[in-house]
Amino acid sequence: MTARHNQGALASAMSGVCLLAACATNPDGSYSIDARAAGALIGAAAGCAIGSAAKGSKGCVAGAVVGAATGFLIGWYFESRKTANAQQVNGEYEQAGKRQRNVATPPRDQIVPARFDSRVSTGRPGSSGEREIQVTSNTDLIGYGDRVPEVEQRYAIYDERNNLVEERTEQLAGVDGAGRYQTDSRFTLPAEAKGKRYTVKTTLVSDARVYKENAYKVSFDDGQPLRLARLY
Q1: Which of 19, 41, 69 is the last residue in one of the domains?
Q2: Is the torsion defined by CA of 145, 184, 187, 39 positive or negative?
Q3: What does each C-alpha distance from 189 to 46, 59, 153, 231 come to in angstroms?
Q4: What does the alpha-carbon distance between residue 7 and residue 24 come to, in Å, rounded to a whole number?
Q5: Are residues 90 and 121 in the same domain?
Q6: Which of 69, 91, 122 is the last residue of a domain?
Q7: pLDDT (tens digit per residue) in 135-167
Q8: Which of 151, 171, 188, 197 would disulfide-bridge 219, Cβ 3.0–4.6 Å?
Q9: DSSP per residue over 119-131, as a string?
Q10: 8: closest CA among 56, 78, 66?
């Protein structure tokens, strides 16, 4: 199959996928892709490549639809909020520093991360066998500097061979200085993920510098509860 035919088949497949994945059509005929649709279209492109190798343009269309259905980030949700103010958090670290030498002391001229913990849990299985994964993270920023850092949280999913499946970066909203911040996010493991193991990583980035990464192994089988194992 020629590249031109493949592109045409993929375009047709993408149009169908967009009908199911929350794409909006612009006046000029192009598509506006929101966060929910992005994962579907990434999966669609991969599915087309696999399908076309076996069955030509028809395989591209079929593969794109299957690929879209396995997008992990369909239904992606993210929320961040401040749960404790600067005075409380700085005070906690100052008191703890007096008792323990290995506790970070709030710096006087800047605001820096001092803690980043994540907890992974699972929701109820869906009607089609998919499983929802929920990630809750808490971040402590300490210090008395005037400049507020730009804080981001990165999410990444890796397959059994440690190949990147999908990733996403979110900026923590409402960061106005030192304090404690909580983020809640969730995504879906499709039914096709049964019997496979994935690694879910969450990373805190402050002013483009990685502070800490947390990682979990996630897997589930038919009729079995989803298994979670913290790696670090």
Answers
A1: 69
A2: negative
A3: 17, 24, 20, 19
A4: 21
A5: yes
A6: 69
A7: 999 999 999 999 999 999 999 999 889 999 889
A8: 197
A9: EEEEEEE-TTS-E
A10: 56
Domain count along the chain: 2
C-alpha span between 38 and 18 (Å, rounded)? 10
* Full-model pTM: 0.69
Residue 140 backbone phi and psi in degrees, to 5: -105, 125
The answer to whether 216 and 199 have CB atoms below 8 angstroms apart is: yes
Other Cβ atoms within 10 Å of 169 Cβ, number: 11
Q: What are phi and psi of 54, to 5 degrees?
A: -100, -40
How many angstroms separate the CA atoms of 7 and 19, rounded?
A: 19
Instruction: CATH number of the domain at 155, please.
Output: 2.60.40.10
Query: Residue 127 has which token pair?
Result: 């009607």
One domain for residues 57 and 171: no
**Residue 48 Rama label (left phi>0; alpha psi -120 to 50; beta):** alpha
Give residue 16's identity as a one-letter amino acid code. Answer: G
